[in-house]
Design brief:
Length: about 170
């Protein structure tokens, strides 16, 4: 890799570190190509991505970034799982680590906050952006349906009372 290619990789990694809501660092020694492809597919499906990069170049890209504190994690054969959604990459990495012993999560970063192994696990248990939006919409919609039911209830009560009076008058 010549100097221009290295500069391009550092620039790409810098953009990843800057724009990602969460970055998870893991060792992947011993994983097959098929297993790595599975990880990439799962990450892509959840709106994230997987990147293998030289640690030295990643450390250069981390300089001046909010998540620079995770540079200590970049040792050995590391893979970066990242996403704009602050939860998606952590969920993908945790799920993959459960079924693949050779995928060892070291930690990561969420904005300016460095995450250790337990921190990544905690982030992965948080609801995703889509789940939060769905619950907010549900909370907003529930009072409206309750109001509609309350408004409609007196009218149906009056109708049933009139029906009962009509039935008695007819009898």
């Amino acid at each position: 890799m010549d100097r221009a290619q290295k500069e391009k990789v550092v620039e790409e990694l810098g953009q990843i570190f800057e724009s990602s809501g969460v970055v998870v660092v893991a060792h992947y020694t011993g994983l097959t190509v098929a297993q790595m492809q599975t990880l990439r597919i799962k990450a892509r499906e959840s709106g994230g991505a997987v990147r293998v990069a030289k640690n030295r170049l990643a450390k250069i890209a981390l300089e001046g970034q909010p998540c620079a504190s995770m540079a200590d994690l970049l040792t050995g054969m590391t893979v970066l799982t990242y996403s704009e959604d602050p939860v998606a990459a952590a969920k993908v990495a945790e799920d993959f680590a459960k079924t693949h012993d050779k995928f060892v999560i070291l930690g990561g970063a969420m904005g300016e906050n460095a995450l250790d192994r337990a921190g990544v696990a905690a982030v992965s248990k948080m609801p995703s952006r889509e789940e939060l939006i769905a619950s907010i919409v549900g909370c907003i919609g529930a009072p409206a349906s309750n109001i509609a039911g309350a408004i409609g209830a007196p009218a149906s009560n009056i109708a049933s009372i009139l029906s009962t009076i009509e039935d008695k008058a007819a009898a």
